[in-house]
Automatic annotation (TrEMBL):
InterPro entries noted in UniProt: RmlC-like, RmlC-like_jellyroll, RmlC_Cupin_sf
Catalytic reaction annotation: dTDP-4-dehydro-6-deoxy-alpha-D-glucose = dTDP-4-dehydro-beta-L-rhamnose
Pfam family, one: dTDP_sugar_isom
EC number: 5.1.3.13
Domain of life, source organism: Bacteria
Protein name (record): dTDP-4-dehydrorhamnose 3,5-epimerase
Species name: Mesorhizobium argentiipisi
Function text: Catalyzes the epimerization of the C3' and C5'positions of dTDP-6-deoxy-D-xylo-4-hexulose, forming dTDP-6-deoxy-L-lyxo-4-hexulose.
Amino acid sequence: MSNDDRTVPQGWMATGTPDQQTVTPDWLAVDAPPIDGVTFKEIRPVATSNGYLTEIFREEWTLDQSPIGQVFQRTMYPGAVTGWHAHAATLDRLFCCAGSVRISLFDGRKASPSFGTVWHKIVGALRPAIVTIPPGVWHGVVALGPETALLLNLVDKAYAYDAPDHWRLPPDTEQIPYKLV
């Protein structure tokens, strides 16, 4: 039985909306990103005798076929917002290793089968995942919770200081049907 087939229990004063399934019994995500070319992989930390080890990226996961040209980190204070940004040629791979963030995506590629689609995911140290974002997909990040978030990006092309592959829009732009703030 799907969530949509469930009826409100008798005697309830309000109808409400039933939750949709988000994970399998093994805690794997059931909702593949609806944006063409975006991949998402939840990662399970491994308990060790002195903490946890979390793999961030492995070639055999086949999330994409691009090389890693640069790895950088970004700290985000609680409530910080990056604003919307996109790249013409660079592929981003975002991983939040401390704190928690909401990554929001908008497919702005007119030729894409998922053009106009918006997708969000909350990831962080307690629920590690890597999100691969192809060129042309607008994305913004909001730091959630009371602690500083630490976001890693494993891009396929290193940042070009003389000609940055970076386009920006404000977090509340009218050009994207979702406000980051």
